From TrEMBL, chain B:
<dbReference type="InterPro" id="IPR013611">
    <property type="entry name" value="Transp-assoc_OB_typ2"/>
</dbReference>
<dbReference type="GO" id="GO:0055052">
    <property type="term" value="C:ATP-binding cassette (ABC) transporter complex, substrate-binding subunit-containing"/>
</dbReference>
<keyword id="KW-1278">Translocase</keyword>
<protein>
    <submittedName>
        <fullName>sn-glycerol-3-phosphate ABC transporter ATP-binding protein UgpC</fullName>
    </submittedName>
</protein>
<dbReference type="GO" id="GO:0001407">
    <property type="term" value="P:glycerophosphodiester transmembrane transport"/>
</dbReference>
<keyword id="KW-1003">Cell membrane</keyword>
<feature type="domain" description="ABC transporter">
    <location>
        <begin position="4"/>
        <end position="234"/>
    </location>
</feature>
<dbReference type="InterPro" id="IPR017871">
    <property type="entry name" value="ABC_transporter-like_CS"/>
</dbReference>
<keyword id="KW-0547">Nucleotide-binding</keyword>
<dbReference type="InterPro" id="IPR003593">
    <property type="entry name" value="AAA+_ATPase"/>
</dbReference>
<dbReference type="Pfam" id="PF00005">
    <property type="entry name" value="ABC_tran"/>
</dbReference>
<dbReference type="Pfam" id="PF08402">
    <property type="entry name" value="TOBE_2"/>
</dbReference>
<keyword id="KW-0813">Transport</keyword>
<dbReference type="GO" id="GO:0015794">
    <property type="term" value="P:glycerol-3-phosphate transmembrane transport"/>
</dbReference>
<dbReference type="GO" id="GO:0005524">
    <property type="term" value="F:ATP binding"/>
</dbReference>
<dbReference type="InterPro" id="IPR027417">
    <property type="entry name" value="P-loop_NTPase"/>
</dbReference>
<dbReference type="InterPro" id="IPR008995">
    <property type="entry name" value="Mo/tungstate-bd_C_term_dom"/>
</dbReference>
Length: 206, 335
């Protein structure tokens, strides 16, 4: 169960970062028709939390045969308007001259992205990773819906399943111990990324 | 090393025309300064040569190639930006090497070239540092270094000194000029500072509202301005513009009279104009005397500090020789 949670949380955090970095890059640096429209469409999805669209999402995932799979756990949660927005704001503070200097140096757009934008957003990425990892780790409703096979259950579900139902006697020490264990990975992530995380929230590297 | 030529280059953003046709042939190794007030299109012109801005009509060629449709890197240019545009996460060495790395230059050659440039710019002790650990002048040098290592045929400078303090600016001005002489690379330099233009240029382009008002050697532009704007913009304090009635035997179309402040003397006899001294500024070597003339216009006199400094509020006479006066017509053109 810990492993399932770990895969799901990592998948969501890394996937979200990759997708939102790329979409923010497209929105900020490329002039294509409907640029603003796309930005607002992405922004609009902020108003539709998982719970609101959970039934149609379930339908789609079931249709793809992704029930009881890691992809089913990860993909529906992988697009993030918040992260896209955050990176967009960050990219907009990067001086235009930097992109122009890279152009004069002969860097292609993707080269500019990987060589310059990506290292510059390092602290933002770290901060976001911490937040998104915890978000993914704490998912409860979605895994509950799409995983019926116990081998695919996540740790948060596991804790809930330990709760007594009906006349059972609760084994509270075990439940508490499990909760503590379940907290370890997020704590490790926070501590290991603490330095970058704080820098990402506090100062901008320019 | 290459010549650059602009043939009737125009630029418009939507319906607004910002550059109304510029023509110039720049010789190999020449240092051209484009000078003008904010919004006159000087940076846009430079960015068109760089390839960062498209050309609406006309032709830009570098060497023998028309470069209108080429990407910046294919034009064989290097550019120094106003805020330096150094990559913040890279060391000084990596910043300077980046262009070469993309071009696929062998590692050994990159190191050699960067070290050579660093030596030239006295940046050797700082190669491992990040840009934010450097002072303004050092960052400026790194930006120069990044341009030098690529051995381009044209250098483009976009107001490179405007973020530096006054003293450093004077020093860097000299360094840039010396460096350009030594390397012999054709350069285009944009500035709004007429002192930089006067001191650095082999030839300068004075721009006003998207038009090149005058193209010429600094002293020629200073001594013989073709328009009223050029007279007022080049020179500090600017040229005095006086009523034509103050001089005799003027051409009929003359509307204004231009006289440089250093060509006016405060004189009691033979004065052509009279006025009241508003205040005088003693600068040490020279004194600027601001005078309000009888007709309500203002004039500035630049005189040697050894001469008697008139009291504020005193009535004085102003005299100048006929050879030093320049006449402009109603449209600000020479006549």
């Amino acid at each position: 169960m810990m492993l399932n949670s770990l895969i799901m949380a990592m998948g969501i955090a890394i996937g979200k970062i990759i997708i939102s970095l790329l979409s923010a890059f497209a929105i900020v640096y490329f002039r294509f028709p409907g640029r603003r429209l796309f930005f607002w469409l992405i922004f609009l999805t902020l108003m539709l939390p998982v719970e609101v669209r959970i039934v149609p999402t379930y339908e789609v995932i079931a249709g793809f045969g992704m029930l009881n799979s890691y992809s089913g756990l990860i993909f529906p949660l992988i697009a993030s308007a918040t992260a896209t927005f955050l990176f967009r704001q960050f990219f907009m503070t990067v001086p235009d001259e930097l992109a122009e200097a890279a152009r004069v140096d002969g860097a292609s757009p993707m080269r500019f992205f990987f060589d310059i934008l990506l290292p510059m957003s390092r602290t933002n990425i770290a901060a976001l990773f911490v937040i998104l990892f915890i978000y993914g780790w704490n998912q409860y409703l979605w895994p509950l819906l799409i995983t019926t096979d116990p081998s695919m259950n996540t740790i948060v579900m596991g804790i809930k399943q330990m709760f007594p139902s009906g006349d059972d006697v609760a084994d509270w020490p075990v439940i508490m111990a499990t909760s503590i264990l379940a907290m370890i990975p997020p704590v490790v992530v926070v501590i290991s990324m603490q330095k970058l995380f704080i820098r990402g929230l506090v100062d901008s590297e320019k | 090393m290459a010549t650059v030529s602009l043939r009737n280059v125009k630029k418009s953003f939507g319906k607004t025309d910002v550059i109304h046709g510029i023509n110039i042939d720049i010789a190999d190794g020449e240092f051209i300064v484009i000078v003008g007030p904010s919004g006159c299109g000087k940076s846009t012109l430079l960015r068109m040569v760089a390839g960062l801005e498209t050309v609406t009509s006309g032709e830009i060629s570098i060497g023998d190639r028309v470069v209108n449709g080429l990407e910046p890197m294919e034009r064989d240019i290097a550019m120094v930006f106003q805020n330096y545009a150094l990559y913040p996460h890279m060391s000084v060495f990596e910043n300077m090497a980046y262009g070469l790395k993309i071009a696929g230059t062998p590692k050994g050659e990159i190191t050699a070239r960067v070290e050579e440039a660093a030596k030239l710019l006295q940046l050797e002790p700082y190669l491992k540092r990040r840009p934010r650990e450097l002072s303004g002048g050092q960052r400026q040098r790194v930006a120069m270094g990044r341009a030098i290592v690529r051995k381009p045929s044209v250098f483009l400078f976009d107001e490179p000194l405007s973020n530096l303090d006054a003293k450093l600016r004077v020093q860097m001005r000299l360094e840039i000029k010396q460096l350009q002489r030594r390397l012999g690379v054709t350069s285009l330099y944009v500035t709004h500072d007429q002192v930089e233009a006067m001191t650095m240029a082999d030839r300068m382009i004075v721009m006003n509202g998207g038009v090149a008002d005058q193209i010429g050697k600094p002293l020629e532009v200073y001594g013989n301005p073709q328009t009223e704007f050029v007279g007022g913009f080049i020179g500090s304090p600017p040229m005095n513009f006086l009523d034509v009635a103050l001089a005799k035997d003027m051409p009929t179309q003359a509307a204004r009279l231009g006289v440089r402040p250093e060509h006016i003397q405060i004189a009691q006899t033979g004065a052509q104009a009279h006025g009241k001294v508003l205040y005088s500024e003693a600068l040490g070597a020279e004194t600027l005397v601001h005078v309000k003339l009888a007709d309500g216009s203002f004039a500035t006199v630049r005189q040697d500090a050894s001469l008697a400094q008139p009291e504020e509020g005193a009535q004085v006479g102003l005299a100048w020789s006929k050879a030093d006066q320049i006449t402009f017509d109603a449209h600000g053109q020479r006549c």
